[in-house]
Amino acid sequence: MAESCPANKDTINSPVQSLLDQSENKQECTSPSPTETVCLDSLSIDPPNELPGPSSIGQIQHECSENNLPNGNPGPSHSPTNLKSEPSQNTKNTFLGELGLGENDEYEEEAEKEETWEDCIEEQYNGESNDDLEVAVEATEGYSVDGVSESLEPNENLNSNQSKIISSEINWRKRKLDMQNGFPSKRLSRTTNKTVTTSATSLPTLQVMPRTSRYNVFGSGVPSNATSDLIKRAPIPSKDNPPPEMIDWLKQFQKWTNAERILAINELIARCEPTQVRHMMQVIEPQFQRDFISLLPRELALSVLSFLEPRDLLRAAQTCRSWRFLAEDNLLWKEKCKEAGIDIVQLRRSSPRSPSNQGSPWKAAFMRQHVIEMNWRKKPLRPPKMLKGHDDHVITCLQFCGNRIVSGSDDNTLKVWSATTGKCLRTLVGHTGGVWSSQMSGHIIISGSTDRTLKVWDVETGDCIHTLYGHTSTVRCMHLHENKVVSGSRDATLRVWNIHSGECLHVLVGHMAAVRCVQYDGKLVVSGAYDYMVKVWNPEREECLHTLQGHTNRVYSLQFDGVHVVSGSLDTSIRVWEVQTGACRHTLMGHQSLTSGMELKNNILVSGNADSTVKVWDIVTGQCLQTLSGMFKHQSAVTCLQFNNSFVITSSDDGTVKLWDVKTGEFIRNLVALDSGGSGGVVWRIRANDTKLVCAVGSRNGTEETKLLVLDFDIDSNSNAYTNAR
């Protein structure tokens, strides 16, 4: 074959060289040899399932070399003019992927330009004589692609055809260099016909195939099964069949010191591709997954679990038996209950089913409280119980303790209700004026009236134990602590009473106008009045310790925790005072009207205002933490409020009771929405415990019947949620 078909002088066939080879082949090569045909057939691959990889191509070329096959054009039967079938785009992309080059639009575009240029040269100079072609080749022989900056001096001995051929050859080589600079390929050497690989990756050295041979690589219609036995693929490396070099490398790795091994690993990772690094992670990560909780001493394991949230602690209990045993620890759940503000004693009293007979009473208490909280937040509301009484009069005061509800009205009576059945147990009759204030502790209730007296009642029997005389005007406010009650009146005085004996112990005089609000912690009395003043008293000595001045209008509400005094006024401000020094620490501004109600717990203050908004404050820093407003805010004045660690419950003149998240300030849902809301329906008072909400509703124009609504959020005795929690 070598004698009949001369080899190319350049591995990459230029247009000139290709034309010259074709001209010679027309004269000397009438058909390819059988050996050449077999070699070319072995490169015919059925796309896309059996594309050869780089190693396979190198092996095939090696076989061609062993059969003394040239790298030049195989003959006229495979010339560009006779080859009509073009390789598909998917087949080309797959072949490039096997070479590690990947899909590259620019590469394909340049290849198309190259083929078009060769076709143009062939068409333009097809009629030229072989002599002109030979002269042009001799003139450009040794001219390197890298030497495009060089110029060929015009030669007077060359005719016009030869000059045109040389110019076309130079332009073609310049185009070829532009393509090679952008993609891994072969470059021509200046002094030799061998090829030099310039690639960023270490690919097997491939000789560039002639144009017709390259088409056969992508598929020329020859069935691959006819020559599949000729393709010898390299075996896929595996654990049982590793490359010999790897065995030597591993032996050497074992001989290295720890520092040398770490260095080798770092260098190895630096040379890995992302897919290989990802494989390393999948192999290494399981090596660090250990059940350290079960391996630790019990005390340390419990200490670790104590940092988990209750929800995560319950999930951890489902992992395995040892984790469940630790997650059921009673002291662990006791701490969780303390963090959540849950009192197990209170829960035992409020629930007929005591959790103490279960594995962990504190866990059962926590789970029960969680289910109750979900009832408040999400579960469908049960139909409320309706407690009708007091006719069309206004309910002026409301108390809720244990299983008893006591309502006072301007109809001169108080009514005692069962929170469970909704029945009116008894009506307390005795006052000759409307009842405007009340306090309750256990089975004792104290009421204050416009008839200027206080009465002490036994809730269970309905008997009036004592009638307390002394005030000369309406008893407008009172506060009960243990066996003593302090009352404030429109006569501008305060009186301290013993509810067991009915005796007036002390009279506190100093205000210049009606006393509107009072607080008592057993040691100090704090009062607010219409004279714009707040006073701190020592009741035992009947002495005014501090007069807190600063408000510019009537004081309507007070809160006192033993350290701080918080006062709300018609001047729209809220002031925080130090009880020991009488100094004003903060002035809380933000409301636009009268602050009608407040509650203070653990330095968190919630205030309701006639401007229809509710605000949450930190009295230590004086910052407003949340404003409960937005598109779901009340549409009228806030009449009453209560809050705990989770919720804020507010009522309004718009006839609604709303539930808010105390931590985020987000509106949760409406608990009550009267049909007459907005047209006269009003929620006057609310009282709530962990499982029940009592609302006193009515109207001032007869659009809503006066009644009490009792909403129950307790766990249903048939609830699967409570059974599962226990």
TrEMBL record:
Q: Does the keyword Repeat apply?
A: yes
**SMART domains in UniProt:** FBOX, WD40
> Which segments carry the region annotation Disordered?
1-117
Quote the SUPFAM superfamilies the UniProt record gives: F-box domain, WD40 repeat-like
User: Which stretches does UniProt call biased (Polar residues)?
Assistant: 10-36, 66-94
Q: Which Gene3D superfamilies match?
A: 1.20.1280.50, YVTN repeat-like/Quinoprotein amine dehydrogenase
Among InterPro entries, the record links this protein to:
F-box-like_dom_sf, F-box_dom, WD40/YVTN_repeat-like_dom_sf, WD40_PAC1, WD40_repeat_CS, WD40_repeat_dom_sf, WD40_rpt
Q: Is the keyword Protein biosynthesis in the record?
A: no
Record's protein name: F-box/WD repeat-containing protein 7 isoform X2
Q: Which organism is it from?
A: Nicrophorus vespilloides (Boreal carrion beetle)
Q: Which gene encodes it?
A: LOC108559084
